[in-house]
Amino acid sequence: MCHRALLDATYRAFLLRIDEDLAAETRAGGCRRCGAALHRDLYPRKPRGGPGDPSKSDRRRLSFTCSICDKRHTPVSVRFLGRRVYRAATVVLASALRAGLGDWRVKQLTEWIGVPRRTLERWHAWWVHEFVDTRFWVIAHGQFMPPVEVAALPASLLARFDGSDLASQLTATLRFLAPLGEGR
Ligand SMILES: [Zn+2]
User: CA-to-CA distance for 157 and 171, rounded, in angstroms?
Assistant: First the structure.
């Protein structure tokens, strides 16, 4: 599968189904504070990055509110990386591709995904400086042996996940990264 197809509507719909499964797990667990049932609650997001307009369901992040105490529960997501407005798949894929590209190709990449070059540079800085300091990564990085090369993130991370093609590797990476936005 070519990397262009990875950001298309079919792949996005596939990621949405994974998010729905993750949300169902959250709902089945009940309220973390009082144990009561959770109500489904959607809040709007405007995901950016990748060709084409987001579909209606793509604009919503799944969420639940407790039926008794009102505590909000936001399930982990393979579509959103914490509070970032760009799609998680775009942030991972574009950042991974950037490393191996010459100037001209970087220009093409930024035009195609609709992300300014400075945003791409900011993402790179985020991976190598901030991501590695997150509580998530501090705990999770130990499972990789030999250690994941920080300077080459996120390409070095993507390469650690087996898959028959780039799509399965990207999906596995997004699943791995999903808890990043937990608790927000
Ligand atoms: Zn509750």
Answer: 12
pTM of the model: 0.81
All residues with CB under 5 Å from ion ligand 1? 31, 33-34, 36, 66, 68-69, 71
CA 62 to the chain's CA centroid: 14
The CA 38 to ligand 1 mean position distance, Å, reads: 8
Q: pLDDT tens-digit profile of 1-38? A: 456 666 677 788 888 888 898 899 999 999 999 999 99
What Cα–Cα distance (Å) separates residue 6 from each residue in 61, 138, 165?
20, 29, 11
Q: Which residues contact 143 (CB under 8 A, 6 or more apart)?
A: none
